[in-house]
Q: What sequence folds into this?
């Protein structure tokens, strides 16, 4: 577990999955700030929201980012260089052929969509070519998913709990397994950019 970045990351990843809960919109905004328009790595996000409310996350982030942003739809292929959000009230999975799947299975850790469900399915689909980022949040969702990414050989990165608005989620992930990185958002953003640079070469 590293609390500082290496000067460069050589790991090649084909996808990034991200999870957050309370405080997650602000954290995600900081993490994805000023991504280059030439971005290649697809990213999928589960952000806990009330099921009964329509999500506007895709519209909000589409206005802030120069890359395509979508709310994931069942059977939608995972496209290069795009950002996807799980719709409220559905679990979001990534199938082995690298398309999205939505389901109404029961909530996991009181959450639907579940970060664990997205991360575990993505670990099965991408294996070592996956990176998982877990940010601020108020429950243990994501800890098991990050462990699954680790077991598949992927890269795991957690927001520094002291910086998180609510530290429960990152602390649960750290307790479940030692992530590759525990970093503040500014350095998580640098890590993300390093993974993109490694992907291009």
A:
């Amino acid at each position: 577990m590293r609390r500082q970045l290496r000067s460069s990351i050589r790991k090649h990843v084909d996808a990034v999955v991200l999870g957050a809960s309370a405080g997650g919109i602000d954290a995600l905004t900081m993490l994805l700030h000023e991504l280059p328009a030439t971005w290649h790595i697809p990213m999928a996000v589960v952000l806990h929201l009330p099921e009964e409310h329509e999500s506007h996350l895709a519209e909000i982030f589409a206005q802030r980012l120069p890359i395509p942003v979508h709310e994931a739809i069942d059977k939608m292929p995972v496209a290069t260089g795009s950002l996807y959000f799980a719709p409220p009230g559905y679990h979001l999975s990534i199938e082995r052929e690298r398309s999205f799947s939505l389901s109404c299975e029961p909530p996991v850790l009181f959450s639907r969509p579940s970060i664990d469900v997205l991360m575990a399915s993505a670990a099965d689909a991408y294996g070592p070519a996956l990176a998982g980022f877990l940010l601020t949040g108020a429950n243990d969702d994501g800890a098991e998913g990050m462990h699954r990414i680790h077991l598949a050989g992927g890269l795991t990165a957690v927001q520094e709990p002291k910086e998180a608005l609510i530290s429960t989620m990152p602390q649960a992930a750290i307790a479940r397994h030692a992530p590759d990185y525990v970093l503040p958002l500014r350095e998580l953003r640098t890590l993300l950019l390093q993974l993109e640079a490694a992907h291009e070469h």
Summary: DSSP finds six helices and nine strands in the chain.
